[in-house]
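Predict the holo structure. Ligand: cytidine-5'-triphosphate.
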Amino acid sequence: MKKIALGVTSSISIYKACEILRGFQKKGVDIQVIMTPNAAKLISPRLFSALSGKKTAVDLFGDADSDRIAHISLAEEISLLVIAPATANIIAKLANGVADDFLSTFFLAVRCPVLVAPAMNEAMYRHPQTQANILRLQAAGVEFILPEKGYLACKEEGWGRLVAPEKIIEQGLALLEKGESLKAKTVLVTAGPTREPLDPVRFLSNRSSGKMGYALAGEALRRGARVILISGPTSLFPPLGAELLPVETAADMAREVKKNLSRADVLIMAAAVADFRPAERSKQKIKKKKAPSALNLVPTEDILASLDRPGGRSKKVIIGFAAETANVTANASRKLREKKLDLIVANDVSREGIGFDSDFNQVVIIDRKGAVAESPTASKRELSRLVMDRVEGLLGRKK
Ligand code: CTP
């Protein structure tokens, strides 16, 4: 039986939380309710304890005798956290990492998907600060089911009304299912640039930030996959739960990919691997007065092109990326054929505002049959979902 946590906060629509709880129960889901102290002033936690069959959690330090810290142990047990209704206050706290009650502390401890259904007065909902908080949480991977227009508690018609409980249940169940769609699969993702040293202080590199690869790793984890993330130098936090293997040069990355590929069902080469490196690597810092007038470069190994491609049961799904500045589709199609890929994700890196170092991108996904799918300009998180949907399709997991 799947277990979820239902976070309940002090919106007037709090009474709908009972219906949400019952709806999940009818689908065979076990529920632990967590209320904020303000919510507990509107409805007694006992009502939710009676409905859920479990003591409602409100107080962070309620169970002082317990040898396990309640919010940490519960975080390990659940497959989904639904916060419905969610006030402007809890959204602001979550967006800023404030942890001053059970629910906000719990949010920081969970690794599972989180679904938030806001409910508030229209002015509060439309306030730029609330909108900024929602965007910030969405960028961090939190799912939202945004309020509808309707009759509000303040006796006004407007935006801010909690969506129907059935919709919250439906989306919650879909997230639970998604959370297992790559279960028992191992996804190996490479990310970021490589650095090719010239001397102990200088290197050749590129503008890759690693954001796309990290988003892909996060999405694979959210779908229940084991994830190995081989990453060049980036300033990003690795997604929780990924096995991080940091590398520096193209040669390091090639070595790690080859060493770990046998464990993987899927390889996604999102890294911007350097194509060439300085022929000589000076052991000492090259002194200004001895600056060379030209650099001698030698090619690095093409990792994708060098991989063995076993067939049968050990056949793997292999996905490449293509960074282009012209003729995107034609160049990417050629790379797909030459590197024997199942799929290539191509983008035009010469376009302003998207691609390198941006949170957004626009890509073209090409498969072996030559089918070309163009994405809209979207966040790298949204694009990572598109790519992972295709991975599921290639693994035969997609319904
Ligand atoms: N790649 C690789 N090893 C390299 C260079 C690139 O495995 N030494 C991978 C990248 O991770 C990407 C794909 O090959 O998945 C295409 O990379 P890209 O830089 O677009 O193309 P290149 O093959 O380097 O070709 P070109 O520089 O001519 O565009």
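The longest strand covers residues 317-324. The longest helix spans residues 380-394.
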